[in-house]
Amino acid sequence: MREILAQVQFRGTIRERSVEPYLRLMKALRTKRRVKGVLLDISSGGGEVVASMDLYLAVKRLDQVKPVYASIGSIGASGAYMAALGARRVFAYPESEVGSIGVVYAHFAFRELVRRLGISVELLHEGVHKDAYQGYRPLSEEERGKLQFVAKQSYEQFITLVARERKRPAEEIRALATGEFWSGLEALRLGLVDALADREGVIEELSKLTGVPSRKTVRVSPPRTFLDRLLTGGSNDVGGGLFGRLRDTLQDAVIDQSGFSFRR
Question: 97 φ, ψ to 5°?
Fold first, then answer.
């Protein structure tokens, strides 16, 4: 049986739809005996709360079976940083953007805009606050306070998770949990990552740990859906690339408003 290292690449905003195939992939990797170690190659500005937690747990469970090293690319912020913390060791480039430990909930109120456009909107609802988060009217003070409380809960959970995984007192992490990011170099000084290395260097480290030669690294990806293949086309297809970018733009624009801080 030829032993290999698996490289799993994740890019883009973390949302349930984009994460689900990776959850299945990482679960499958747990049972693949020939895979002796996994490199999580991640570059993302974060995304939805639950999707980020799911990705973190998938990485954590995989690492309990075989070693997972995380390599942060251009950016490993917010939910992406959380996901990387599930790995045994976290690496970054000196120039990587790392951290952004914080939570943001966006509420849009388009009532004045639609009025100016001459559009009439009727919201028929039961329940005092049922129309609060439909993106039509501003929040009341009571509703704003409730949303702030939910954000606070997610924020505290994030701090607790980082403190546990980085083996640091929660108050030390709280001082860093300002929502800002740091360079990989500064993140190393602050104890948010374990070492600095490019992807090839991380694979070499994983090779030393597992005894599998680095040249036996194989990139593995979740199967692409028919719709995804239809929209993106081939790698050299100009139209496919255009539709792919359009799809990504639309997905980022309509992402669920209850999430970690997004790409800056």
Answer: -100, 115
Count of C-beta atoms within a 10 Å radius of residue 58: 23
Of 85, 78, 40, 80, the closest CA to residue 60 belongs to: 85
Q: What phi and psi, each to the nearest 5 degrees, are found at residue 103?
A: -135, 140
- In sequence order, what DSSP letters do the residues of the chain get, joined into one string? ---EEEEEEEES-B-HHHHHHHHHHHHHHTT-TTEEEEEEEEEE--BBHHHHHHHHHHHHHHHTTS-EEEEEEEEEETHHHHHHTTSSEEEE-TT-EEE---EEE-----HHHHHHTT-------SSTTTTTTSSSSPPPHHHHHHHHHHHHHHHHHHHHHHHHHHT--HHHHHHH-SS-EEEHHHHHHHTSSSEE--HHHHHHHHHHHH---GGGEEEE-PPPPHHHHHHH--TT-HHHHHHHHHHHHHHHHT--SEEE----
pLDDT digits (tens, 9 = 90+) for 116-166: 888 877 767 777 777 777 776 888 888 888 888 988 999 999 999 999 999
The token duo for 36 is 């002796």
Question: Per DSSP, what are the bridge partners of residue 9?
Answer: 41
Judge if pTM exceeds 0.90. no
